[in-house]
Design brief:
The protein is an alpha+beta fold. Helices cover 16% and strands 10% of the residues. The protein has a 3-stranded antiparallel sheet, with no helix packed on it. A two-stranded antiparallel sheet has the order 1-2. A hairpin with a 2-residue loop joins β1 and β2. The mean pLDDT is 78.
Length: 133
């Protein structure tokens, strides 16, 4: 009886040693942050409304994605980018602006970096530094 008990215990222990855990694949996810809700960026001052196409210059975009502005902007401290303040609602712009959640159609803006004419520098944190830099 004692022998049967040891053999059973040995069988259970060997099963536990040879049973491997289920295979799991490693997953790597890199997230830079949430996707912007405005296709061409948003103004860098409250209430952070969507800025129209043409307000921000090409240095504000990476691969067609707006890199940020506002109090949560964590770019380089000395970052300054061109804007065209003719498209600024605080300066009287009343033209069309995109709705939150719209997507940019960069195919129709292929010459964006050549056609853009900025007239003011901004730091992404709501501060303007008039003129070209």
């Amino acid at each position: 009886m004692r022998l049967l008990k040891y053999v059973s215990l040995l069988a259970v222990a060997s099963c536990l040693l040879f049973v491997s855990p289920p295979k799991s694949d490693a997953q790597i996810a890199v997230q830079i942050g949430p996707q912007p809700v405005c296709p061409y960026g948003y103004y860098d001052y409250a209430p952070y409304a969507c800025a129209p196409y043409g307000y921000y210059g090409p240095e504000w975009f990476s691969g067609g994605v707006f890199i940020g502005a506002g109090p949560w902007f964590h770019g380089p401290h000395d970052f300054h980018g061109h804007v065209d303040n003719h498209f600024d609602v605080q300066r009287g712009y009343h033209g069309p602006t995109p709705q939150r959640g719209e997507h940019a159609n960069w195919d129709q803006h292929k010459n964006f970096s050549h056609e853009f004419h900025g007239n003011e520098m901004r730091d992404g944190r709501g501060h303007a530094e008039g003129g070209h830099r």
